[in-house]
Amino acid sequence: MSKDKEALIGIDIGTTGCRSILFNLRGQPVSDSYVEYPVETPHSGWAEQDPNQWWKATLYNLKKVLEKAKVSPKKIAVISVTGHQPSPVFLDREGNPLCKSILWMDRRTFPQCKLLRETVGENELYNRTGLRIDPIYSLSKIMWVRKNLPEIFRQTHKILQPKDFIVFKLTGKIFTDYASASATQLLDVHILEWSSELLKIAGISADKLPTLTSSTSIVGGLLGQV
Q1: In this protein, which residues make up the domain named Carbohydrate kinase FGGY N-terminal (predicted)?
Q2: pLDDT for position 2
Q3: I need a labelling partner for 179 at 20 to 30 A (CA). Which of 70, 137, 143, 188 fits?
């Protein structure tokens, strides 16, 4: 770490709001900022959010924690991002969200879960991913979008989780960590790679998902326009 750095920033993309905290290099909190945003429920059992709200809240919070702490952006050593999941974000080739993110609490995908039980089987899916069949996971959500929003599905270039979307907006890089990937129900936990069989069921190729890395990896520097 460069000797001229003074602080670290943590960003949490929560379900009901985004919080950012600036820490000194001893790990002590110096300043914080929080922005709420709504969970949209257009139908019974549905729960959605506009990913652009997460980004807007992130930018606001970053500005506020720096102002409160009287720290220059050039003095920040590291920014770390976490967030709720599994809440897939469908992006076009320009990195713009194509639709609302289907949140982890959304329950619309019971038909897709039924299909998974009939075609893959509960035990087989559990043995491969460590997860039981449930609407919470990204696999059934991707299947739902493929069936019900075919034009959105056709235009989809990448599918990210909330924190990965924010990392992409900050750095232009597309990564996810193994822990986050394991919550999608698309990761083969025995080999720590995207499962080709489950990708086929979802109807996507591996290049539509983030590159896998450890949670402590430095994925890139900030874009100039951030």
Answers
A1: 8-222
A2: 63
A3: 143
Selection from 63, 58, 89 nearest residue 157 by Cα: 89
Question: What percentage of the chain reaches a pLDDT higher than 70?
Answer: 99
Helices then strands, counting H and E runs in the chain, come out as 8, 12
Number of structural domains (the chain) is 1
Cis peptide before 86 (omega within 30 of 0): yes
The answer to whether residue 219 sits within a structural domain is no
Other CB atoms within 10 A of residue 26 CB? 5
Q: What angle do CA 32, 36, 37 make, to 5 degrees?
A: 145
User: CA triplet 23, 24, 26: central angle to 5 degrees?
Assistant: 110
Q: Domain containing 28 — which CATH number?
A: 3.30.420.40
- Structural tokens at position 119: 């075609």
226 assigned to some structural domain: no
Nearest of 173, 161, 138, 184 to residue 54 by alpha carbon: 161
pLDDT in tens, 80-90: 999 999 999 99
